[in-house]
Amino acid sequence: MENQNPDYTYQNVIQIEDADASRKFMASVFVWMFVALGISAACAYIFATPQFLRLLIDPATNSVNGLFYIAMFSPLAFVLIMSFGMNKLSYGVLSILYILYSAVTGISLSIILLVYTPGSIIGVFLTTSLVFGIMAIAGYTTKTDLTKFGSLLFMGLIGIVIASVVNMFMRSEAMGYFISYIGVAIFVGLTAYDVQKLKNIGAGIQYGEASAKKMALMGGLTLYLDFINLFLFLLRIFGRKR
Q1: Is 4 part of any domain?
Q2: DSSP 8-state code for residue 239
Q3: Quick one: DSSP state of residue 147?
């Protein structure tokens, strides 16, 4: 589960309502999100093929190789480097890290293509896209301030991370389903919350000192993580295994 959902601190940004600036900023955010999804999907498909799968799993012993562990655990390192180094790294370096992160995450997701049927993966992906789209529109258009829900959603996120780690040892199928349902609810809420937060940032970003391009990239990362986690939780609930 890609549970990293960084809550970035954007320094020196004055929130001045500018609808046109907000729309342009959000367009850039979604472009970066779709770029990451495209790269991840391509890498997942490529590494699910037999010639590349052997780089992750030894066909003779059916044991995982070193690249498998790198693909599984390095995404967290990429997220931490990008989030903590956003104000220090150049836009070019941040872009390269973002692309590498998307590729490595896609490699780690290639395993699900071997576990679940193609039809169920496509069905869950379309369902995720629909739910994500509805909540993104809701977050962008609602007049309700969702800021007050941010801390609750973050605490819920920490809770499912801890529960997931515990369940790795318990191996309880019932608990796994419970975590998945709670995870869906949390990331549905986070999608609306993050979109509204980014919309508000975009409305005043042109008056701030922070780099608009870097902030749009990091915003794309935030929504990408929301989408991927929502997809994975829904897949665990509705996906059909081979």
Answers
A1: no
A2: P
A3: H
Tally of structural domains, the chain: 1
How far apart are alpha carbons 37 and 227 in whole angstroms? 9
For residue 9, give every residue at least 6 positions away whose Cβ sits within 8 Å of its Cβ, in sequence order, or none. Answer: none
Q: Classify residue 8: in a domain, yes or no.
A: no
Strands annotated E in the chain: 57-58, 63-64
22-67 pLDDT per residue, tens: 888 899 999 999 999 999 999 999 999 988 888 888 777 777 888 8
Locate 106 and state its tokens. Answer: 């896609």
Question: pLDDT tens-digit profile of 156-171?
Answer: 999 999 999 898 888 8
| Domain enclosing residue 93, as ranges | 19-238
CA max distance for the chain = 61
Is 11 within a domain? no
In whole angstroms, what is the distance from residue 102 CA to residue 123 CA? 22
